[in-house]
Design a protein that fits this description.
By secondary structure, the chain is mainly alpha-helical. It has one domain (8-98). 73% of the residues lie in helices and 0% in strands. Helix 1 (8-28) packs antiparallel against helix 2, helix 1 crosses helix 3 and helix 2 crosses helix 3 (63-79).
Length: 100
């Protein structure tokens, strides 16, 4: 099944969920650069879960499809020079706005 086009809000949520997962993983490993961000283990995980569920509900993409989208976005953020650092400021604002 082809992936439906995502709205800007859905794309932003996807990007931030992937960014939070990467940073939380690095924080858990003790990465000093990642530790400069607020702790994302709990809040980031909740944002990730809610974003995935919302994508499933709003787009009809199944769980595996959402997992593939999240993995692809995380890979892009990890591989593209500076992408994660550029994504984090607006993502942290989105996290605060979410109330988590």
């Amino acid at each position: 099944m082809p992936t439906p086009a995502l709205s800007l809000e859905q794309q932003s949520g996807l990007r931030c969920a992937a960014a939070f997962a990467l940073v939380a993983q690095a924080q858990a490993a003790g990465d000093t650069e990642a530790l400069e961000y607020p702790a994302l283990g709990e809040r980031g995980r909740e944002f990730f879960v809610r974003t995935a569920a919302r994508l499933i509900d709003e787009t009809g993409i199944d769980r595996d499809g959402v997992a593939r989208l999240l993995s692809a976005e995380a890979a892009r953020l990890a591989q593209e020079e500076g992408a994660l650092d550029r994504a984090m400021p607006p993502c942290l604002m989105l996290l605060e706005a979410s109330g988590l």
